[in-house]
What does this fold into?
Amino acid sequence: MEESWRFVGNNYAYENGLDTADMETFKKDPIASLARESCQNSIDAKKKGEKKVKIEFKTFDIEKEKIPGYDRLKAEIENCKQYKKMQENNKEYEQLNDMCKAINKEKITCLRISDFNTTGLYGEKFYLLTKGSGITDKTGATGGSKGIGKYASFVASSFNTVFYSTYTIDNESKCLGISKLCSAPIEDSDEKTIGIGYYGIDSKNEPIEGQLELDEKFKRTSPGTDLYILGFRKEEDWKEKILSKLLDSFLIAIFEDELEIKVEDITVNKENLPEIIENESLITNNLKKSIISQYLLINEGEGVFVKEVDILGYGQVKIFVKSFGKEQADLATNNCVMIRYPYMKIKEFSRISTMPCSVMCIIGDNQLNKELKDIENPQHTDWEPNRKNNEALRKEIKNIIMQLKNYIVDFVIEVLSTSETEKLDIEGAGDYLPESNMDDSDITGGEQEISVAKETPIIVKKVQNKKFSKNPIVETETLEGLVPDIGGIEEGDDLSVPTGSNTGSAGTLHEGDEEKGSTEDGDEEILRRVPLTDMKKVFFVANKEKGEYIAIIDSVYDESDCELEVKYFDDAGNQYNANILECTINGTNVDIEDGKAVRFKITRGKTKAVITTNLTDYYRCEVKLYANRK
It folds into this structure.
C-alpha cells in the first residue's frame, strides 16, 4: 500500500488554528518541555529487569528531499498559508510563512531522541501516543498520565512535524509521521481539514511496517523508540538547556542509577554526576542552585538531616534538610523540592524558610504518589486539587497536601533550631527576605492585614521589604539587613554565632533599669526583674500567617523564674510590645500574663521556645529575657 501524507477532513465541523491549547501548553519553554516530557515517557517504558533507562538526544542534517512525502507536506503548509492570508489572519500567516522558509532549506536540521532498555511502543501504546489526546493507559507510579505531553515535540519543530519509530520487545517495528498545522481547504472540495496530517498507509492512516532511518549514522538493534523532530529549533544553548532541565527534573533518578542521559557527545550518569554538576559551562544559571542543592541533599553529607514520615496512612515520604552558614549561603534555595517516584521533580514549595537552607521531599511508590499524580497539571509541574470532580475528594486531597506541608515545615524548624553544623550569619539575615509576596503555592504567603498591639493602633506602620544585595557574602558599608523574622543575639562570651544586635538603622536599644519589687510597707526588697543579657538567643519566624516564632536560648546556668517578651519596630525605629498569645518551653505550655510568657525555668544548655504572637507580617523584632531574683 502507498505511503503518503493524508490531511484528515473535518466533516464540515470544527476548524482548528495553529495555536491550539495543547500546543500553547508547552510554548513557554519548548526545549525544556521537550527534554522533560521525552525523558518521562522513556522512564515509564522501562523494560522489566533492566536497572536503568538510557536516553539520547542527537542532532543531524538531512537533505530536504529525504523527508518522507516532502512535496506533499510542503504543499500543505503553503495551502495553510494562503488560507490564512485570505482570512487576513496576520499572526498565523506570519507563522506559516516562517514554516515555508524552514521547509524550503536545502539542509534541514533534525533532532533524534532515542531510548534504550525500554519495551518500545507495542500494541495500543503506539496508537495512544500518535493518535490519542487527553487519554492514556499509564497507571500507578508512572511519570505522566495526561496524554498530551507529546505535543512538546511539535512545538520544538519549526514546521510542527515529527516522526515516531519503534522496535518492540516482540520484535515488531513500525513508524508514523504527524504534522500539526491548521485547518485549510481540501482540494476539489468545500470541506476543510482538521489541521492534522499523517504519513502512513491507506485511508485509516495506519503506521508503516519497519523502522524509520532518517539518521544515516544510527541504526536501532534493540527494543526502544526513536522520535525525530524535523526542522528542530536549534538554539545556541540548546544542549545546556536540555542537560539542565533533565538534571533539575531527574537528578534523583540519575543518582539512584535508574537513568542515564546523553546529549550529543555529553553523557551523564551516576558515576560522573559530580563532575557534570561542577562544570559551570554545562548548566544554565537559572537552574544551577536547584541542581546543586538537590545533589547535596541526596548525598546526605555533612549538615543534612533526614526524616521519614507517614502521611495520613497514604504512604511515606522522605524529607531532607540542609542548613547553610554565611560562607555557603549563596547555595541555599530556601525552597522545598517535591519529587515523586519514579524520581521526577514536580514542583517547589517556595520560601520554606527565611533562614538559609535547602529542603527536598521524596514521595515513594505508594498511594500518596498515585493521588498526587492524578491532580497534576498537563506539564506535571503542580498539584491542582480542583481537578477532582467530587467536592469531598477535593477537600481530602487538599488536607493531604496541607499535612504534607506541615510535616515539612515542622522538620525544617526542628533542624534549624538545633543544628550546630554551621555558624549562622544572624546580622546578615535580612538578605534572605523575599522581595515580593509569596503566591498561594507557598507554605506561608500572601499579603495579610496586621494585628498590632491595642495601645498603638495608629502609629504602627508595616515594615516594607527593602532590596538587598543578592549575594549575602559580599559585605558593604551601606548594606543594612532588616531582621524581622530571625531576631537578634545578645552579646556574650564564646558565642556559637556572630555577636551583635538586630536593630538595623533604628538606633541602639537599651535594656533600661532593673525593676524592683518590695513589701507593702516599702521597707524590704522581695524580687527584682533582671535582664538576662549574657544568654545567647536566636529568634526567627516559624509561620508568619500564624504569628508563630521560634526562640533558641543557650544558657550556661539554670534560672528558675523567668519572663520572656517580644518587641517589634516600625520603619521609623519606634519600639512596641508584641502580645504573646501562647508559649511552650521545650514542649511544655507556660503561663501568659499581660502579653508576656512568665514563671518558667531555663536549664543549662539549649532551650527551645515556640511563641505565638499577634504579629502576622514581617517585622524587625527581638526577644527579651528576664529573671525574677531576690
